[in-house]
Amino acid sequence: MLKSKKKKYGSFFGARLTSTISTSLVLFLLGIIALMTVMATQLSLYVRENMGFSVVLDENVTEAQVKGLEKQLTAAPYARMVHYISKADALQELCAELGENPEELLGYNPLRPSFEVKLHSDYADAVQLARIDSTLRRNYPYIKSVSYQKEFIGLVNDNLRLIGIILLGIAVVMAVISVVLIANTVSLAAYSKRFLLHTMVLVGATPSFIRRPFVRAHMVNGFFGALIANGILWGGVYYLCKELSGFSSLLDKRMMLFIAVGLLVAGVLLSWLAARIAVGRYLRTGRDKLYYI
Question: What is the model's pTM?
Answer without folding.
Answer: 0.67
